Amino acid sequence: MLRMNERRIDEETLAAFLDGTLPNEERSNVLRQVAQSPEAYEEFLDAARIADTLRETTPSVAPRRTRTRWRRLGLGLPLLAAASIAGVILWPSTREASNVIALAQNLPSAKVVGSVEGTLGAGWDVPGWSVLRGNSTSQSAGSAARIGASYAMWVFARNANDSTAARALSERLASLLSSISGAGPSMRALAGGGREPQQQQVIGLALRAIAGDTATFDVGAWLSTTRIALQLGDNGYLARDAEPIKVLTAITSALDANASSEWDECRKHLRLLLTGTHTPQEAAEAVGAALKAIPL
Amino acid sequence: MTATPATVDNPERLFLELLPAIDRILEIIARKNALPPADADEFSAWARTRLTDKDYAILRKFAGRSTIQTYLSVVLSNLFRDYRNSVWGRWRPSAAALRLGPLGVRLEELISRDGCSLREAIGAMRNADVTLADREIAQMAARLPMRRADQLVSIDGLSNTLPANPDSAHLSDEEREQVGQALLAAIDTLPQEDQVLTRMRFWDNLSIADIARVLRLDQKPLYRRIESIQGRLKSFLALRGVTEDRARDILSEESIW
Question: Closest to B78 (Cβ–Cβ): which among A8, A75, A86?
């Protein structure tokens, strides 16, 4: 049980004091507390040192410039870049992303004994998608789906504490993102992060924004997650009223609205999964076929 | 990143947007306090949970009177104090450790509170990415008073008493009491801001540039102002036969502050 200091200065008041934005009268009040109470003084000085260090190392300028400065400063904070991107262009439509990310996070990683490969078998992280070359539009959409699929596998590997698999997948993500300006360095730096669920969410949201095609990113992430769930033997995963099917319903609607006819083959397999009339074996085959049908 | 009361309408979104800054602050706290990676991770997880407690109450409380980054700095700094007190009890660092800064405090915790040998303490600080040479850490340890872990004051039995600081052992208790009380009386006559300046300069050995930046004061006039404060205190003490060195010791004695 924590005991809070009853004489603690109101935190926002102290923050405004440190920012130099407090009116004179309130500033005097804070000074009085700091002068009279050793504990208040310690709180003030500790917070001042942290805020000062933060100010020294975090620029407060426009997003485009800040990303450059973060890199120049060598802070190794890919999440800053990720969140800045996500904050600018992604947040208005995060509900579907949050759902699909949650599905990946909720995979029963505790079932992994040793390595993921040892549990799921060799090739678990090779979905076997098409190598046929498409036009420029489908390349972008296909790339987003691959990023989504790789992200879901990376989350699973991370949560299963398989650092070797996680590193390999983060390198794959970096490779997939290498053609997108500014994204490659951030992704390579992500190799050691993402242990916390919130971090994984921020990374996922940022990747989805960077990938550019949110509908196909979600398709890739959903298919990859479902493939793993089925490989883990969860035969009820695609039950008619289960959460994955609800998420898939929203995803296919977005796909229908946004993706080109090159996605028809993939759509066909996704619709089969929506019917709920398949055996586990048929479901696994449909997921595999949908992954293969993702255009390059 | 700016946050206003309007954006706090969606605290979850705000939390996610702020997560990089939160992690950066947690990293700063861990480094300043030389926390080993395992302790840093544990504290970080605990602090993030506190931020999300009661539907992000801490973030919803934010009214936009400061920047959100500074607000988070204050909040997380206080959370670290709460966490440290809850896990380790309310450990009171010695005046000597305080003068050496956060690394001195951490070193004292390792040696005096946790019972580590100097070699173990150096190892623990290495694990926390402290870049000082072994010899520098050893020199720092030599300047710390020897204290025992059983002097740790538990959070439920907090006492304001402190063990005597050997730095000022050359003063008898009676002398120290007399001079200390007189000095306190002198400091009390200073304006509040000067009292804080005195403590920052003489207790914490902050540079004038640092003090100016933290208190948002012009640096140039601050030199003269602190000289003036110092002159007043020195005169006051000289009248009572106390040298400048002794005055510095006394100024760093929390028990008389």
Answer: A8
